[in-house]
Input
Amino acid sequence: MEEWENLARQYASGRQDEAIQTGHRKLQRADESDWRWLADALKDQIEKWFVAAIFRGYPVPKRLVETMLRAAIHEVDPDSNRQFILPCVESFGHRKVNEFLLNVVEGDDDVEIAGAVAALYWANMKIQYTGNVPQYTLEYATPESRKDFMASNDVWVRKRETFLRVFVNNYNVSIRQQIIPSLNLDESAYPDELKPLVQRAIEIARNHSDEYIRHRVEVQLGNERLIRPIPNRPTSATD
Output
């Protein structure tokens, strides 16, 4: 698809608005070959940014949502992966995106698990609060935000419990590095059968060979304030 490739090069060269506008016009008359090119481009380290830009503020078609989310999973830059996540959230909602990523976290590919945990950061639901509040808890959320959040409460419970289980049971360092900043260490947040895993997670983190994991658990427990940046994620299981 030479025209798409030319547009991707045009985007990479700095003529971004023009490339995106032309891409939008092509989508209006896209056929199977166009969709194949877009799906393949999401697996290319350069062309994927053009595809992400096309769907910024433009509906992501159902046929591309999984490929977009997998592009996020395999993007190791923790800031850039949101370019694939946010359009999918806007098009399909928080539930669908979170459930897809959690299915990956519950899988058996360590590289994809770490990537999906990182991507879930951008799939969080933003909560609007009422003015200047003493603490950012659901209690002080606007009625609309609270309603939206509670509508997907089962997803947030699943995420919290999945993170705890995976942190304790998966020995991969990168996975534990990705999970620890979002790991809830309050036993009261879990059902009785999972409460023992909280102390186990704390023990694992405090005695871990990885400095970042040892540091981050103390942040989680309120013993440290200065937060160090998360280490770079490897691109493969052998890195």
Summary: The chain has twelve helices and no strands. The mean pLDDT is 93. The two ends are 34 Å apart (CA to CA).
